[in-house]
Amino acid sequence: MRVVMVGAECAPFAKVGGLGDFIQGLARALAATGVEVQVLLPYYRGLLPEPFVSRLEPLDVAVSIPLDGAALECTCWRLRAEGLDCVLIDPAGDWFRRPHVYGEPDDGLRFALFARAADALLRRPGWRPDIIHCHDWQSAQLPALQWAVTDAGEPPVRVCLTLHNLAHQGLIEPAVLARLGVDVGTLLGPGPLDDPAAPGRANLLRGAIHCADFVNTVSPRYAWEVLHTGQGMGLQGVLQAHVDKFGGILNGIDDALWDPRTDPLIPVHYGPDSLSLKARNGEALRRRLGLRARAAPILAVVSRLDAQKGVELILGGIDSALALGCQVVLLGAAPDAAVAARFAAKREALADCPDAHLELAFDEGLAHLIYAGADMILVPSRYEPCGLTQLIAMRYGTVPLVRRVGGLADTVVDANHSDRPVGERNGYLFEAQTTEAVHAVLGRAAWLWRHHPDHFDRLRDNGMRADHGWRRPAARYLDLYRGLLGA
Ligand code: ADP
Ligand code: GLC
Q1: How many A from CA of 101 to the centre of ligand 2?
Q2: Is residue 149's pLDDT more than 90?
């Protein structure tokens, strides 16, 4: 079986958040079962880490797509590294020669170009896969293109769509698609890309939900929430209409890459059988970030600083944690200027505090050290399709404190309030989106850390020993692909 993943991120080549981890982890896990998997990404010139640039092999398959009545040539590069087989699509011009993966004013056109080129490549002889697996709006044009134009004499390609974040749907002007020679008349007015909430614009994600053979979100609970709790962000109607081809599959993490026994980015290796060594990473973290040496739990936040992640509750949680005698480490990047300013002000206010450090950046190495060195991690999301930081934290013996929502609710079992056996309890949950609720949950966790460290270690141990690897979810995706192919 040949599967092609098409998306905007794949770690370690391009990562902004969990989408990068997801495509990396699922592709590696499927490849390990013998599936032929390829990942299609844009070639982000200037962002691809240097060691990988020298490993690019030019591919002898030029793809040309229409743009404004002329032909736009796209070079394709192959990158085989880190257990991944990627094809990087490189349209002529500066479309992907930008300082960021996302956030450019012409993102709609940039990713429409990428998806159009991916579609053209995957129709070339020898390139047709059995399954095209698309992710989020950046590749969401593909299911519609495959639906609109079938290649005569070829077996149909089956298309899956995974929804990682409904906040971004790819709302673009039909004129943008028309510039790319897309048959807008078939897709709009009325057609699958029509969005009653955005008349006159094309909604790529909506079209993809309509046209894909299977659609899923990344946890069962979020799949239910988007249908029934107002979290569908305008897409609940189209999802309900297609509920027979819709489901939730819980994400995994790559437990070979996220492993405190071997992680090259942390100073002291440890595992569930040598948990006491974890404290030495805490000391290293304090030294690196200038926190004073103290017998206090370290609360971490590692997050995109975005409204989704509960900006107010993160800021309130920092104050609560300090008031409760914890130390606090935050690592986060805020794409929105107003949110960035609020965290910069907080960092300023805490500049002389020996118990807090806010690092407002994206830093993969520091993230690993924080997972290894912290005692608890706070994830107070407003909504969370799955969430990987709580899974990674658990693998590193760091106890998650999370809002009971989406994938957080599917993966964290409360230490005190649960009907599940003690051996399955791994963290703390809270419900209300209030700073009081965050304060209460921090109080429960800090109390256990201080007064019953052996019980706290039990939570760490339960998290570390649980299987959150990709094997099980990859087997579910494989079953899904087989079902679609009638195999
Ligand atoms: P999302 O995809 O919504 O951002 P996830 O929890 O699924 O949330 O995944 C976040 C991923 O991004 C994790 O691998 C986390 O370690 C990483 N991450 C988030 N912010 C940063 C940062 N500032 N520096 C390094 N890694 C980060
Ligand atoms: C998205 C979601 C996050 C999920 C990740 C990977 O970015 O916000 O919850 O874990 O995708 O699926």
Answers
A1: 16
A2: no
Ligand nearest to the backbone CA of 251 = 2
pLDDT at 191: 82
Annotated binding residues for ADP-alpha-D-glucose: 15
Does 56 lie in the same domain as 152?
Answer: yes
Compute how many other C-beta atoms are within 10 angstroms of the C-beta atom of residue 416. 9
261: in domain: no
- Asked if residue 367 has its Cβ within 6 Å of ligand 1, the reply is yes
Mean pLDDT of 441-448: 98
Buried b (16+ CB within 10 A) or exposed e, 133-153: bbbbbbbbbbbbbbbbeeeee
Cβ count within 10 A of residue 80? 12
Please check whether residues 449 and 475 belong to one and the same domain: no
User: Domain tally for the chain?
Assistant: 2
Task: Tell me how far the alpha carbon of residue 149 lies from the centroid of ligand 2, in angstroms.
Answer: 31
**Using a 6 Å cutoff on CB, does residue 436 contact ligand 1?**
no
Q: Whose atoms come closest to the Cα of 136: which ligand?
A: 2
Proximal ligand: closest to the CA of 165:
2
Are 288 and 424 members of one domain?
yes
| Residue 408 CB–ligand 1 contact under 6 Å | no
pTM (2 decimals)? 0.97
Domain extent, residue 181, equals: 2-252+471-485
Task: Using the mean position of ligand 2's atoms as its centre, give its distance from the Cα of residue 217 in Å.
Answer: 9
On whether both 194 and 307 belong to a single domain, the answer is no
Q: What is the pLDDT of residues 353-409, one digit of tens each?
A: 999 999 999 999 999 999 999 999 999 999 999 999 999 999 999 999 999 999 999
460 and 476 belong to one structural domain: no
CA–CA dist 206, 377 (Å, integer)? 34
CATH code where residue 459 lies: 3.40.50.2000
Beta-carbon contacts of residue 31 (< 8 Å; ≥ 6 apart): 37, 83, 84, 85
Whether residue 248 sits in one domain with residue 193? yes
